Amino acid sequence: MDPRNGYYNQWPPGQPPNGRRFLPISGTFGGVQGPNLSRPQVQPNGQQYPVQYPIQYPQGQYLPPHPAFQHPQAAFTPLIPLSAVEDLQLPQVPFTGAAAPESFSRVPFATSGPVVHEGYIPAPGREDEDQYPALPPGYDELDFQNSSDDESNYEREFTFEEQMRELQEADNSEVDADYSEEDAQQDEGDPEEMELEEEFEDADGQIQRRRAKPAQPLQRGGALKVARSRKGPRKVADPGPEVKELLRQANDRFIAQDYTVALDFVQRAIQTNPEIFEAHNIASEIYAAMGDEVKSIDSLIVGAPTKRDAGLWHLIIERVNKLDEEKYPEYYEDAKTALNLRCLQQIVLLENDNYEARSHILEIEASLGHVSKCVKLGRKMLKIRKEKNRIPDTEVLKIMAMMGTSNKKQTRTHLVKLTKSFEEAIEIFIKQKPSESPFDWEMINIYLDLLDKGGQYDYALERLKVLARWKQGRSKETYWDDRDDDREFDLEDEPRRVAVPQFKRKSQNAKHGQSLPQEIRVKLGIFRLRRSNEDFREAMHHLEMLEPDDHGPDALVWDYEDLFRVIGDCLHAAGYDRDAMRFYEPLYNNNSQELGLMSYLGIFTCFKNLGKPDRAEEMIPMLKEWNAETVDDLVRLAVFFENQGLLADAVQRAQILYKNKYAHRLRKLGFKAYDELRDEYTAQRKQATGKHSARKSAVAKNRKLIKKATGRGEGEVDDANDGSDKDLPTLGPLAERPNEGLFRTKRTRKPAKAQTFLPFRADSENNRPATPKPTTIEGTSVPLNAIDHRFFRRKLEALARDSADELLNARAQHREIKASFENLEEIYDAAEEGDETAINGVLSLTRELIEEFSMFDLFYSNRKEDFVSYFRRTGDQELWKESALMVLAVAANNVEDGETDPELKERPDQPPQDFWGVHFDKWVDAFGRYAIIQAREGDDERCFSTLDIAIRSNIVNRNRNYYHQLQLCRLVCALAADDSTQASSAVRWLLKEYPFSSDFFRLYSCVNRLCTLPDEYSSGPSHKVLLRYIKTMDYALLTEDQRVWYNFRDRKDSAGGFQNSVNVEDVKFVKDHDPALFALYAHVLTCGGSYMAALNYYFRAFAITPDDPILNLSIGVAYIQHAMKRLSENRQFQIQQGLAFINRYYELRVKEDVAIHVQEAGFNVARIWHGLGLVSMAIPAYEKCIALSERVRKETEDQCTDDNWGHEDFKFEAAFAIQSIYAVAGNAQAAKAVTESVLVIE
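RE: above sequence
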């Protein structure tokens, strides 16, 4: 009993007897407005904690009374405030770069945000689902436990397919290592790539599981009595004498009102044993007596996990809600909501079937706009009621429908699940008497709305009739289904209804058309209208009952404005403009708030089509001033204004869409000026490139990579644009340089020489002797006839004349670079053999060469274009000058060295193959050797930065052979540096270049097996790449009809060659299903903890290669690992399945009687027994494994032909396992014997 002489879980007197806790969306039915409900108070659900005075302990200890633990004074009224959900709209057009709301993910609660299950990979596009109010300060470190609700297998399996679909859309450099920041920068503003904003969806997997539970009687009020679960209050632990003494002293000081000393005793008791709830309880009372309510609540929250009682969490919620915001400003409304949510999740953790707590969680999630969570939680609540043989909660169904169809994206995601939930509920409701069932006309209308959104008009029409008959008490009148019309819902029996032979008029008050609500009748007409043009007459038969031509003060139009608007839209879409205007016109003439942009555009079109252009023109000013709140509205306005010839208004809106990366929406709706708009922005980008604006960012980042690769500080690299002062790693002291002068010299522009201007004498021209015309470029021996045309020749002559000193420096630099490469060839072999002097020499020389190559900006100006010439016109004079000086210096030195036929072409027939006179092969080789040496030296940052610099250049990026070599080099370096991330990235590139190669699928696992911490093996990019390969393989092997059935829909407007995350360019490489791919993806899922998902793909591989022993072992391990999970269903079954496959693995592995295979199989079986805790079976298996060691060694020795042999032996692993078993069991003597006999290294 509670203080109000009632029972706990009882609804307050003001609550309706049928338990209706939620209300419909405002304005949905009959214009009823939903109330703005205030925060509900919590009704505790279980034991309360007024500690009785005194509490007796074995030594006479007692605790003081705790007046703060009182019964709650207000009832729990789990009303969901619909004001939080009824205003949901489509996403706003991101006109500005406003900061996103702070995510709650920074708070390290186990229950904060979405629970991340094993194998779950967060996906972009779902960020809004993770926004939670911030908790009050100081709660970041509290230990809230995981909710069993969110960790249940049911929900994990329910959301798996959706998580996999979301994963494919992740193009985030933090998640996907294959999508770099440089890729994003190169693609920014590119109109061709901005069209890749299409969304791809997979069919939602339907997983049904039901565990039988004993039936319980139905309760009224919607609440379920919650039985005490096994996770209830744990047995009170013995505090121990020391803690008891401290608590006794704290009690004494508390009674004496010496709170400071009492608090000190309590804190010492908590430090001694924090698992004693009484200590936290006394601390809470002391803080309450001191007037610090916040710390009092904190003490209860800290101690609540030790008590494990749901009633305590209810009490915490009540006390939090009573906190005064003026006194405690950090406990504002949102902070209380966040804390309440955490407490409610703890209640669900303790009482998994606590329907009341779930109702509160649903309330909070709905108020926060978390659509997916509301739908998922609602389905879980319906499942709980179904398992207890209770009727579905109609209010939960309403909230699911409201949230799940709040916008187009959510509707696409959740519509199938919502429809299924409603139909499962209808199967139960339809068995009840209609007068007693809570499934009323309002619920029927919501269900029909879902069918309408799904476009199932035939099915919707059929279901409408069935449900209407049931609600009218005419379920047995199925003979109406033989009629093609809707005469059974006519207002009068004559003339149509009486023509049916089976119809018999029972009374004047018989329920047929008279009791059918207007909303349902309108649905009947709309379904007919959208179903077929042949049903137009029947549709209008229903719609005419709204009397659209009556515009008087008592007309139906003023009560059903929303229905008139919907009817007008439908008639206009069907092409019946004249009839549409009968419903539009009263709303338009009275400026009804029900009319949106689509309706106004429909009215405009109707006026045009009906020959009323003047009235249509009257609407143009209003449409120009229309405030578009969604992307859809902006796109429609742009297309509309273009069609009306208002190009300025159309382009203005199209530019907003283009800048915000919604260009594909314009193209999809047929915006004719799309190509011109794209060309304009492309021209702007090219112009920006000429003015350095597009290149500055890439150059600055390239300079940073140079610093990482070469270890140079700011003083050694010219980078005026880079203000970073971060300390860079160095190589430490280097050995003496091999030779002097073989390094890159910096070219600095000298100031212009002073000139003396003398008076001009006219007669001096006549007396000056004639000078012969030059035949070579000034300062060089390069003949002018070696330059292909006159204009180019003049430019080079001017360059040589005006930059003579720079040309001399460039010629010297050319000599130094060639000498450096010659020196490298001499010391490479010694460096590879480990000579420290040679290694330092290679690093020193190569560092200079890498810096020279990487600072040549022409190679990095645009890596998406092939390198064709050093004299490419980029609009950057400094870039051209740098390239021309280099080419001219190399030509001059070559002529000086004896070349007789130099040739300089501005546009050569073949792209240049050298840089500073050295072939690109040697430059790429220098990059690779430098990276490998750095990896061996342990400097992985410089190693991979060097490779990244090379790959950024168009020399490497556009040359498949060079790119392939450096990716292999990356793989080698990654293995040397023990870097799983870089190794996986290199193999993924190989998978992309050589798609559907079984060897590369195996290579992916091999390289990660060689890494100490293969954390990248089961990362997001791995899931994404492998799942895309599986989908592509399935796509290639299906027929066209099957592709449609399995949701492989063609996307005509999509770009990039992808169809629903299927790379159609690789379809030609698919030959058949590859078990290696299925097994690899299953291994990845297993490493992430998604064992049930992994089994799906293991069995696909098993169907192809059932006799693969490793595959049988993997399936067995997955079953057993899943059985070890806390919430595994039918654990015994899972273990039995796993052991069956383990035994089959053993039989297959030992069939050929190869010693190493027999030993391996025995060891793995022993590990399974060991993992299951069956050490009595594990020890003999381990001992057999040790006994096989000599046979393994002998077989390996016999197979060796060069006396240089080694072998894999599981003897030591088996011995260590036996040692561990004995040590844990306390048998030190046996553990020592095993160690001495096997594990001692002699």
